[in-house]
Amino acid sequence: MTPYTNQYARRRTFSSGKFFATVVWERSQTLEEQVQTTRQRSAVAGAVVAAVTASLIAAAVTTAPAQAAAGCRVTYQVASQWTGGFGANVTVTNLGDPIPSWRLAWSFAAGQRVGQLWNGTVRQSGALVEVDSASWNGRLGTGASAGFGFNGSWSGSNPVPTDFTLNGTPCTGTTVTTTTTTTTTPPVSDILSRTHTVGRVRATADTARYTWPGVYFESRFRGTGVGIVLNDADNDYDVQVDGTTVASLITPGRVTRWINGLTDAEHTVRLVKRSESPWAAGEFGGFLPAAGGEILAKPAARSRQVEFIGDSLTAGYGNLSTTRDCSATGGVDRNTNTDLAFGPLAARGLGADYQVNAHSGRGMVRNYNGGEPGTSFRTYYDRGLQNVAGDVWRNPDTWRPQLVVVGLGTNDFSTAINPGEPWTPDSLTAAYRTAYQGFLDKLRTQYGPGTVIVVSATNLFAATAEQVVKDRNARGDDRVRFWNYDNPGLDRLGCDWHFSGNDHRLIAGLLTDYIAALPLSW
């Protein structure tokens, strides 16, 4: 069986021994340093693809009001020391705004060298040491900490380092909040009145909040530019103007991003959430017109609608990576684009609106490696905001998909049953089949008898999933179909053996062909 891992399921811990030395170093980033860092990040994350169309020639991305707090604290503990060697434990605490990944750096003063390190990835060049987070411990909220340990070598003396930096911010234990200059107007009120929105969104008059991947917002405007108002330090987005991606916004924070230099004409704009964030909600504050421009009536909803339900394979986990270990190229978050997963690719080819309600690491009854028992994908499917326990989602009357594609089972069956789990192979299979029937009942009640529901699977659990469909058909529901999309052409070169971009394009083609034979009246 192909190795399968998931960033939301893996956890590691380590314990420290008796401390021979303990030191805490803290520093905050100066205003000038923070503004420069913000500008550098914006230049990369907001880069415009050159010469995409005649109407986008010389387009530029600028940043309007942004606030960010930066600060950190480091505890470096020499746990044990012997002739020529020592062991150390390091804890870094983020005192600023949430960050999606971290790099801790310092310099040794006496020629020490890092040998084996755990809970991170290390590189050393001369005295300079840099430790990058692992894929599973990189996200640090305000006040959150991460730890790692290592064994090292020394000769002569072993002084404690004093110049720690977190993502380039010197650590001194205080924070600085900075604001860049802006001349933009406040966000428009009732932001969804002129925005076509697809996905589970909790909206107020001036803010739309969401957690599910692939949520998108579309609008029309007249003028030479458009602003996108966001408050999200966790997710990545793509901005598309007239059907072409012109900017990728990487964990933008609280910001208004402007796409300028367009021809003075009518344009379409689309903002799509590329990444998963079941732990935190992003906020969209609307589209703004450039000076002299206007936000026009929203685009019409598409008559075709498809809902994709599943796990990391449906979400496009790690699909931008070309290597299975993507820790050195930004980790899973930077290498995921749900908009390029097989579902969205197929739906756009069919001219359909779509939702991607996918949650990595979750199964129909059992999560990856038996994690978080008592919960499953079904726990979260009922929610509008995945991070709000007890939240209940009610689909609007405008969302009635003619087709629902479900892909759940990889996490149920991809890992061996651990001691202490309440399953045997047979009882797990039975529970899966029973729960699946209940889930199909929910979808049938929700969308009515005319919706076609496709139960999809790979070879890993194809026989069990197909039996679910046979049982359903025997009950008289012949609009539930089975689709095994495994294919020898899949290379699984995405992060952690997930589908690559090539795989998603291949599967999208297979799905398009499969849909063509379904009894859809759209």
TrEMBL record:
Gene3D superfamilies: 2.60.40.290, Galactose-binding domain-like, SGNH hydrolase. SMART domains: CBD_II. Pfam families: CBM_2, CE2_N, Lipase_GDSL_2. One of its GO terms (biological process) is carbohydrate metabolic process. Keywords: Hydrolase. InterPro entries: CBD2, CBM2/CBM3_carb-bd_dom_sf, CBM2_carb-bd_dom_sf, CE2_N, CtCE2-like_dom, PCW_deacetylase/CE, SGNH_hydro, SGNH_hydro_sf. One of its GO terms (molecular function) is carboxylic ester hydrolase activity. Residues 65-174 form the CBM2 domain. This is GDSL-like lipase/acylhydrolase family protein. It comes from Saccharothrix carnea.
